[in-house]
Amino acid sequence: MGRDKDHKKKKKGNSLARAAGSGSRASAAQLAGYADGQPFDQVTYLEAKLILKPERFTSVQNFREFGKIVEKTAKKVGVGFIDDPKAGLRPEVREIVFGDTPDFRLYNNAFILRRRISYVDGFPVGDPEIVFKFRHPDEQQATAMDVRPKIAGKYRIKFKAEVLPLKDRVGGYRMLYSHNCQFGLSQVHDADGSMSTLVRIFPALATLKKSAGERISLVNEGIVEELLLPLGQLDFGKGQVGKCDIGLWRTRGEHKSLVGEFAFQVKFPSRAEVSEKAKKRAAQFYLGLQRAVEGWLALGVTKTGMVYRLKGNQPQSHE
């Protein structure tokens, strides 16, 4: 069974420096593992996001305009910026749907189930990607949740520290820990839309099942079209380089714009190997960019949350 597993020391905290980490003391919980003896997955990705007002994006030129601000901010704080050749091309197009029970039981318990399909010249390409994640502000809870699927095919585990702005003001950040499992739809052959089958594939959901006949369906009957434009790479020094991109989510059919997002992601083998200088530069860049694009920011929301609120619903969540 294939998997790309993340190994690293874990330290609870709510700052970029702690998210990127330092190799300090390991608690007894950190040395523990899952029920079958497999060691706990550890955070090896830092993904920083800015959620943006959708009305700021009326053409691809707005994507590139934002990219210029990113480049200017990076240079101002000593972060290298390398242009992506694709930034001058048309945005990539992907289709995204979420699955849940009618009462949003997955999302209300910090789980997210998503399918994503890439399109080229109007036609789907590649294997549709299934992502199952447990996303929570408490790192220990996210670590302890075993998101591994019971499938015969290959899958990949990615454990991310996600950085978002504060919910009510510019100039700070909050943390979510996203424990992800992803695989191609071709790797599973018994997906029939029933909650029973879903629990068999993802045992972590066992406590959420209420009856044998339950089924999951598209959240709010919504199909999201994502436009995504790669912007480039950010070089924070000491080998810490991450790609950055900007995207817009809108509904298929109505083309109602929901939310924009800028994000950069850095992968590291262990927290102990992330230099203090790189961590400081990442924090300075993230906070500086918030201030530079304050008029673009949509605070207190996430992309997934916007889909769950398409019909005015206000589900409880851990985001």
Quick structural overview:
This protein is of the alpha+beta class and 319 residues long. The protein has helices spanning 16-20, 60-76, 105-108, 139-144, 195-201, 276-292, 303-308; strands spanning 45-52, 80-83, 92-100, 111-120, 123-136, 156-164, 174-184, 217-218, 224-235, 241-251, 257-267.
Explain this structure:
It contains 7 helices and 11 strands. It has 319 residues and is an alpha+beta fold. It has a single domain (16-308), classed as Hypothetical Protein Pfu-838710-001 (Beta Barrel), CATH 2.40.320. Strands 1-6-7-5-4-3-9-10-11 form a 9-stranded mixed beta barrel. Strand 9 (224-235) and strand 10 (241-251) form a beta hairpin. Helix 2 (60-76) packs across helix 6 (276-292). The longest helix has 17 residues, at 60-76. It is globular, with a radius of gyration of 19 Å. Mean pLDDT is 90; it is low at 1-14 and 22-29.
Element-level helix/strand string: HEHEEHEEHEEHEEEEHH
Strand arrangement within the widest β-sheet reads 1-6-7-5-4-3-9-10-11
Question: Overall 3D geometry?
Answer: globular
Distance between the termini: 32 Å
Structural class, judged by helices and strands?
Answer: alpha+beta
